[in-house]
Amino acid sequence: MMIELIKCHGSGNDFLLIDEMEKDYGFTDEGRRELAIALCNREKSLGADGILYILQSEKADAIMRVFNSDGSEASMCGNGLRCAARYVCEKLGIEQAIIETMKADLQVRKEAEIYPGIPTYQVEISPVSFQLSDLPLNLDRDTLIQEKLPELSDGLVFTALAVPNPHLVAMVSREHLESGMQKELSEKVNGPNDLFPDGVNVSFIRKVGDREIYVRTFERGVGFTNACGTAMSASSLVTCLTGDNAFEEAISVYNNGGMVQCVVHKHGDTYTIDLIGNATYLYKAAIDRDSYQVVDMQEFSEEESYKKLQEHARAIIA
Ligand SMILES: N[C@@H](CCC[C@H](N)C(=O)O)C(=O)O
Fold it and tell me: What residues form DSSP beta bridges with 68?
């Protein structure tokens, strides 16, 4: 039996999208996990940061499940949700949809192109929680908002939040980004450790201009990726809390794979974030289910336009 998939990316955060609505592959969760480990391997197979499984939903237009390249399942994936949004909207011939994810049913919709020639989607990032029990982060307190965490660093100021997957973010200088500090502390909190028993996505943010930030993320279950959509959303929210950016205004978020825009909404004591950016298809392929060998591959021609956005982004963050 063949498995059909689409290789896609959001800000260079790349995924293999498998439609289980179209074809019933009869995957078990262990099967989904094994497939993620096998196909995401960049040395031995197609390579990707994760697999997006699209399934039939009883209450929404579709379900998106996300498996990281190490086989762990993530509760959310912002860049992946844009790719899933495009796939579901085009499949159903609609411009907006509701996609069920592990913890929330989220609104997605087609948007005006973020850069010429780039299919663009807006996705809702929600719910947001600062309760440490929601990450979880084991500290003898309820929240960690713009405070030091001496177990990880004497100098950096961190915020911990769940959107709803767990994030730890810090605003840093260029020197911090160039040091090995992010890798070192990310490996610590994503290995066996008492603070973050389930691991955490770790982002360093640098302000690059008015309503412009750069975010680099070490992703739980993957390592450094070109970008992480939920991390860029969480980081945008933190910069609104610090006063570096403003609620309800578009923030350009640059990353190593390109750029997105985030708009942070404050509703009383709660927050939601709009994440707007590309949903780019690279190729579609058919894989032999037993050997994982590629049987057929057809490329899309969308990457040329995307490279122009990347050049623009690189010039800003240089
Ligand atoms: N790249 C994603 C997040 C994927 C999940 C993450 N690694 C986790 O385990 O929480 C995004 O774009 O949000």
Answer: 50
Q: How far apart, in Å, are the Cα atoms of 231 and each of 62, 125, 172, 196, 293?
A: 23, 10, 15, 17, 33
Cite the annotated binding site by residue number: 13, 68, 78-79, 165, 201, 219-220, 229-230
Domains and CATH numbers, the chain: 2-123+279-317 (3.10.310.10), 132-276 (3.10.310.10)
Could you confirm whether 77 is annotated as catalytic? yes
Closest by CA position to 117, among listed 262, 265, 312, 318: 312
Give the Cα separation of 229 and 249 in Å (integer): 18
- Check pLDDT > 90 for residue 150: yes
Task: Please identify, by atom number, the ligand 1 atom nearest to the C-alpha of residue 11.
Answer: 12
Best CA proximity match to 131, nearest among 103, 161, 164: 161
With a 6 Å cutoff on the Cβ, whether 165 touches ligand 1 is yes
* 228 flagged as catalytic: yes
Angle between helices 78-92 and 229-241 (to 10 degrees): 120
List the binding residues for substrate.
Answer: 13, 68, 78-79, 165, 201, 219-220, 229-230
pLDDT band (50, 70, 90) for residue 75: very high
Across the range 9-26, mean pLDDT stands at: 97
User: Any residues with CB less than 8 A from the CB of 183 and at least 6 apart, and which?
Assistant: 218, 224
Contact 13, 32 (CB under 8 A): no
For 208-229, the pLDDT digits (tens) are 999 999 999 999 999 999 999 9
Beta-carbon contacts of residue 265 (< 8 Å; ≥ 6 apart) = 247, 248, 271, 272, 273, 274
Q: Which ligand 1 atom is the nearest neighbour of the CA of 166? A: 10
Residue 228 CB–ligand 1 contact under 6 Å: yes
Instruction: Give the active site residue among 89, 228, 240, 262.
Output: 228
Mutate to test the pocket of ligand 1, among 73, 79, 103, 230 (most ligand atoms within 8 A of CB): 230
ipTM of the complex, rounded to two decimals: 0.96
